[in-house]
Amino acid sequence: MAKVLVERRSEAFESRYAREESAARLARAIAGFTSKGMVFETSWREEPGATWLDVSFAPSRSTRLFLNSASAVLTLLIAATIWSLVAPGEVPVNRFLVALATLLAIFAFPIVVVAYGSRREAEESTLRKKIRRAIVEEEEERR
């Protein structure tokens, strides 16, 4: 799941409509769509007899910042645990509490990463669905 957070993906959609109409339909379909877990870019390309929309999905800047800061915090917690275990004169209760906090943070981290990854996948899926409804599917197919 962590790979989903940092990878870049792209997808192409063949439009059933002319480029101008496709662009207008797409603009209406994604109006008001906001994403927190990803950044997307669209570009149009023309091929003989077909108009294609290329969409690239990338992680948001806040996702990378979160992962980097979480890694730094976990590293500091591990260092604090090691220091508290080997430092002479440290109260045993403090040693236990620092080690417990570190252990809980390590166990909680994958759950948080799964939540971030699921949010990004949900946003990508929502965007793909909006694009398909706007330019790929015909009106009769949706009913």
Helix content: 55-70%
Structural class: alpha+beta
On the 0-100 scale, what is the average pLDDT? Answer: 90
Number of domains: 1
Can you tell me the residue ranges where pLDDT is under 50 for at least 5 consecutive residues? Answer: none
Hey, roughly how much beta strand do the residues contain?
15-25%
How are the strands of the largest sheet arranged?
A: 1-3-2
Largest sheet: 3 strands, antiparallel
What is the rounded Rg? 23 Å
DSSP strand tally:
3
How would the global form be characterised? rod-shaped
Q: Given the structure, what is the number of helices?
A: 4
TL;DR of this structure?
The chain is an alpha+beta fold. The protein has one domain. The protein is built from four helices and three strands.
